[in-house]
Amino acid sequence: MDKEIEKLISKETDRQNRGIELIASENYASKEVRDACGSILTNKYAEGYPGRRYYGGCEVVDEIESIAIARANELFGSKFANVQPHSGSQANAAAYRALMPEGGKVLSLVLNDGGHLTHGSPVSFSSHLYTFVHYHLDTNGRLDYENIRRAALEEKPNLILAGYSAYPYEIDFKKIKEIADEAGCLFMVDMAHIAGLVAAGVHNSPVGVADVVTSTTHKTLRGPRGGLILTNNEELAKKINSAIFPYYQGGPLEHVIAGKAICFKEALSDDFKEYALKVKENTKACADELEKLGVKSSGTENHLFLMNVLDSFGINGKEAQAKLEEIDITTNKNMIPGDTLPPSKTSGIRIGFAASTTRGCSKDNAIEIAHIIYDYLKGNSSKEESLAKVHSLTSSWKKIEEI
């Protein structure tokens, strides 16, 4: 093996084993998923779809991709699935193309309140190819459905978009669908963050409610890095397929699709349902304990919450992220509703327990993590003391190689 890269992979393995991963969009894929993604399937070029390829020798990968499609539909209760998107961003790009003409208007959550780059950020392709108008959260940081309704009736968009990267509460998809119907537009959900919770039945599902649902497969779903698109509409399914290939992508990554097939099977198990419940339980336990300590928190109804570090500790999100990394706790800075600081600094950090729960984090551990974070950011505990507590916790959890 390339010793230089081998050494770096070893260092990254050690980092993951040593630390507490609280980035809400990260997780640990199983050994079976990792083996598939590192298999000889990476050698196969397979432009097109099962039974309709532009290359020979696709008999085996046709079976694998067909299994992945069938399992995705079984898991989410959809009729059509495209498992080829290389990422959530490309899944969103294909969905937009299938749902509206270039230049079409999209009503989405304002980015500062928890949207995603592909939901209309000026640095994303989305705002260059489509017109985005936005709705805001209310003063409590929650979706204001009446405000969404007013915006939809006034703006008359082609599409209403829901699903967020930093929203800690349950989403009422049926209410937004009613708004879309009243406004005479289509409805799309990007469920990348909550896909695992939806799969486990611990968050209501947008499938069968929205016209199109997009997702990643690597966050709460705990699979390989990649994207997914679901719909019950056959005509939209055909447009989505054409938008992925040949419009946006070339050959699919069949080794990753095999990993997706495995993760869908894992998510169909009772063990996964128990895992998803524990994710919510751990996240709530940590958020509640921080609030008891006097920290300003959003609270949570899913796998993540936002912590206002500017008001709670007098430091910005970038500084808090760096300080926690000193004690091997990984988070990410994040804007909070009504943030007065720019995205490069932010007033908050985002905390999620999908990854740590995979390794065996318990409710008691989550409460202890709240105290470690509070004491270190408050200056009540030294770096050495905090590191010792972190490593004591993670030494009892599953090793990454064993997941």
Throw out a few tags for this protein:
403 residues, alpha/beta, four-stranded antiparallel beta sheet, 16 helices, 46% helix
Description of the structure:
With 403 residues, the chain is an alpha/beta fold. Helices cover 46% and strands 14% of the residues. It has helices at residues 3-18, 31-37, 59-76, 88-99, 125-129, 145-155, 173-183, 195-200, 234-248, 254-267, 270-292, 309-313, 317-326, 354-359, 363-378, 383-394; strands at 20-21, 48-49, 52-53, 80-82, 105-109, 131-135, 159-162, 186-190, 212-216, 227-231, 296-297, 304-308, 329-330, 332-334, 348-352. The strands form 4 sheets. A 7-stranded mixed beta sheet has the order 4-10-9-8-7-5-6, with helices on both faces. Strand 11 (296-297) and strand 12 (304-308) form a beta hairpin. Helix 2 (31-37) packs antiparallel against helix 10, helix 3 packs parallel to helix 10 and helix 6 runs parallel beside helix 7. The longest helix is centred in the C-terminal third of the chain and has 23 residues, at 270-292. The protein is globular and about 60 Å long. The two termini are 24 Å apart. The model has no long low-confidence stretch (mean pLDDT 97).
